[in-house]
Amino acid sequence: MDILLMGPPGAGKGTQGVLLAGRLGIPKVATGDLLRDAVKNATPLGLKAKAVMESGALVSDEIIMGIVGEELAKPSCARGVIFDGVVRTIPQAEGVAALLAGIGRKIDMVIFFDVTDQEILGRLEKRRTIEGRADDDPAAVQRRLVAYREQTAPVLAWYEARGGVTRIPAVGTVDGIAGQVRDAVGR
Fold this sequence. Notes:
Layout: E1 3-6, H1 13-24, E2 28-30, H2 31-40, H3 44-54, H4 61-72, E3 82-84, H5 90-102, E4 109-114, H6 117-131, H7 138-160, E5 166-169, H8 174-185
Parallel strand pairs: 1-3, 1-4, 2-3, 4-5
C-alpha cells in the first residue's frame, strides 16, 4: 500500500507517518531524510544535492525523483511506503506517479492533515521551545506557510481531480488523530 501524507508544515505528517508506517509494517519515506542520507553517504545524487543545497538553491525535482526512485527500488519498500513530504509540487506528483507506475503500483490513498494557521503557529512555537529548531521561528514559519500555499497546496487539487483525498481534521491528541488515520486507512 502506498500512502501519501499531505498538509502544511507542523500538521503532524511526520508524527502520524511514523505511527502509520509502524502499524502497516512499511517504511516512511521523507524527502528531507532521503536527502540527508544521500548527502551523508556521498551517493552520486547526494553529491549533486549537496552542491545545490550549499549554494542555497532548492533541490530540483529531477534530483528529488532520482533519490525517491532509488529508495523505492530497495527491498524494504516492495510492499509499499508512507510518503511524507515527498510531493511538494505538481511535477513531483507526476514524477512519483511515473515511478510507481514503473513498478506496477500507484498512490492508493492521499491523506491531507487539515490544520489552521493559528494551530500550526502554536505547534511550531512549542516545538521550537522544546527542540530549539531555528527553522521554527515565527518569521521562518510564515515563509514556509507562504511557500506551502504557493507550491504545495495546488498539488492537493491535482490529487482531488485524480481520485480523491481523505481529509483528517488534525487537531487534538496524537492518539486521537492516529485513530482517525487508522479509521481512514482501515487498519
